[in-house]
Every structure is written in C-alpha cells, then in structure tokens.
Amino acid sequence: MATKMRQGAAPSSAAANKAAQLAANRAFMRGSIERVAYCPVTGGSGVTAAYSPGTTLYFDMPVQGGGYAKALLITYSLTVTPASSGTASYAVNAAAPWNIFSELKLDYGPTQVRTHPFFLKIQDQIKGNLYGERNRVLAGNNDSALAAQIVGTTPIVVGSGNTWQGKILLRLNATGTDSVPGILPIMGVGNKPQLKLTCTPAFMGNDPLLNPIAGTNGTGTAAATVTGNINVDCIYLDGVSMANNIPMQLNLQGEPTLQYYWDSALTPFSTNNVQWKQISVLLEHQVVVSVIIDGLQLNQFTTYGNLLGFALAADTSGQNLFKAWNISNNISIYDYYDREVRRIYGQDLDPGVIVWVDAMSRGVNDPDNRNGHQVLNMNPNGGYTATNHRYSVSSVSSSLTTPRVETFLLSMNYNGLQLT
After folding, report:
1. 2 — pLDDT class (breaks 50, 70, 90)
2. Region 391-415: what's the mean pLDDT?
3. Which residues contact 143 (CB under 8 A, 6 or more apart)?
4. Residue that finishes a domain, picked among 230, 255, 280
5. Distance separating alpha carbons of residues 301 and 74, to the nearest angstrom
6. Which of 151, 205, 211, 383 could connect to 379 by a Cys-Cys bridge, CB 3.0–4.6 Å?
C-alpha cells in the first residue's frame, strides 16, 4: 500500500542538505593544508613592485585549481632617507608603518575590501590575549633575528637610509581561521581578484593616520626620499589534506561573505559638546573600530587627557545607549580601558582607538566571558539602522591636520559573494 509523503518532507530534506553542506565546508576549512603562492604584479610576471609615493600598485591573485584565498601577506622593504639640511629633525607618526599605504582595496567584481592598512594592525592586536601587531611576540621566547625580518622597526635617523621592512596580514575570512565568509575563489573562473595598494602621496606630513613621518624641531625639514619593493603572497586552501588523498570540496552557495568598509569620517570635529556620526553601512558588523584624531600634537591620534567621553547609541536621539563612558553618566573613560581593552586583549591599544564591536573576542571558549557572541546588526530587516558613535573632547586644532573621527568596519553580507 502506497504511503503518502508527509507535508514538510521536502523542506526537511532541504534543511538536511544545507546542514550537510555547512559541515562539509567547515571540514574543508579545518582539514585543508594551508598553501602559499605569490601574487604576480598585474600586467607582467614579476613578483615585486617598486614603491613610489602617490602611485597605486596592482597585484593579481594567483590561479590555483580548486583554490580559495583566505589571506594576503604583504611584505614591504623600504629605504627611508629624510632630508638632512639645516637642523632638521623628524618623528614617526602613530600609524606607521601601516600608513606607507594610504588605502588598501581588493576587488572581486565589486569591491570586497576597502580600508586603511592601520585597521589591520588593530585586527592583529584584538585577535586575542598576547597577540601583537605584525606577529610581534609579546611574551615568551623572542628571537631578534626573526623579529627583524617579520616585524621590523621604523628608524628615522636624519641623513641616513633607514631600513623599514616587515609584513602586513590582510585576513579575508577574518572572523576565524575555520570560518568560510570572506574567502575568495582563485581557480581562474568567474571574477578575477585584484589587490590595489595606494602608496601614500605625502610620506612626510602632520596627519598621524595618513603620513608616516613628521618634521618636528629645526629648520630644513623636507619630504623624505623613499625607495624599495613590495611583494604579496596569497595564503589559500584547495581541499588537499594529509588525512585522505581525495581533495575535499567547498560550496559557497548560500554562504554569506565578509567585507571591509572605510566609513565616512566625523568632521568637522569640535570641542566639549557631544558630537555623533551615524554608521552608514547597513549590514551585520563583526568589528567596528573608530580612531579619534584631535590635531593637537604630532605623532599621536589624541591623548587620554583630552578625551572627556564616548558612547555607542542605538538611535539618533542618544537616549538608547549600548555603551557609554562619561556620556549621560559619570562612568570614567578609564573603565573602558580597564574592562574593554586590557582585560580582554592583555595589552593597550593606541590612544584614540576605540573598539566598539569585536564579535570574535566575545566567543564562548573563555569561561570568564559572560557577554556571548556580540555582533552589531544594522540590517534593515530588524536591525539597529540608526546606530551612531558619540564623542566629547576638551580641545581640537586644525593647525596640524583635520580633526576628525575615522571608522572602520568588518561586516557580514548575507547576500553572499558575487561569483559571476
């Protein structure tokens, strides 16, 4: 006797298929051997591109059968020679050496990544307790010969050819090593990924985010001469593992993607009164970071003493505050640096850097964490679309640079990767 198919059987089958796809994708991410291939310079077969202030360097992603890129490792090797006339003296600005590039873009059809490389430093630091920028060792054994190649320094001896070298990591699937969103196919079909690195137009200047060095005391300061090379490596997975000689497969159908955004700045930025800026990207944000630039001093974004208060609000009226320090309350800003920075990351961030959202550090693997996984949902269908960040400072100045607040986002896009 024939039996009737239960209503809902097809959806249950679809759900089972989806669960199987997700499990297979996670197995691919976890089990695949990480491989490395160099990114060729666009239009040629060279490995390195010559650094030149104001120019944009183009790199193509390598073509690897069955491959998916999960990170790009940018290696820089520069010689920085500041002018030595008169009594010139110089200092390194706050965002150096990340600001040897004024913008980083990665196009995959639409732009997948647009940010300032300084945001990548913050990602290094917030990865977890005792992680340092550019893979700097914060505790334990630290070999100086390795550190010189991997991390490097930013010397600025007048009249000398100063060596700046190191590595900058752009994470594509930045919410976690085993996560799928953000990875890019590099098997040579569909959109062709291309990295664009814009060399900062003015190597010397007073903006702590945009200029690597600044003239300080003395006369005769002039733009530094900068030469050197940039090369980029691609870290990718192709399903090959040591456990089985049959490569695993990845299916991006239905998977979200992860994108980097450089939000519009809060400017003009004035004193004492609370100023605010609405986040313009309406997606689910995994990381939201702001950098407060007051223009009062060389080499720093701001000082702790100049910060009166800051807050993250769910609405434009500022009545519904997610988080607030000395805005509509008497909570010291140093409570933020205690509980939201040192106790989570085990280190201090640069003065003026405010981490509003960091979903990855709010996981459940730490038994001391009672906050859970905290994303900022700004999707129009049920999210906080009017979320804004607020600030009050004692003073600002436009004599050195434009006072402002810059904001960087790492956002989940549930429309997925555009593969065509």
Report:
1. very low
2. 97
3. none
4. 255
5. 25
6. 383
* Unique residue bearing structure tokens 């049920």: 382
Do 287 and 370 lie in one domain? The reply is: yes
Encoded tokens for 186: 């590099």
401 and 417 fall within a common domain: yes
Contact status, residue 290 vs residue 276, Cβ threshold 8 Å: no
CA dist., res. 238 & res. 184, Å (int)? 11
- Using CA atoms in the order 170, 230, 116, 382, what is the torsion angle rounded to 10 degrees? -30
At residue 138, φ and ψ (nearest 5 deg) are: -95, -20
Residues 200, 211: Cα–Cα separation, whole Å: 7
- In-domain check, residue 173: yes
β strands within 39-189, DSSP E = 48-50, 56-60, 68-81, 90-92, 101-107, 111-115, 162-171, 184-185
Is 71 among the domain residues? yes
293 and 356 in a single domain? The answer is yes
**88: containing domain:** 33-255
- Give how many domains the chain has, as a whole number: 2
Please state, rounded to an integer, the average pLDDT across all residues of the chain: 91
Q: Pick from 239, 255, 271: which residue ends a domain? A: 255
Q: Across residues 384-397, what is the average pLDDT?
A: 97
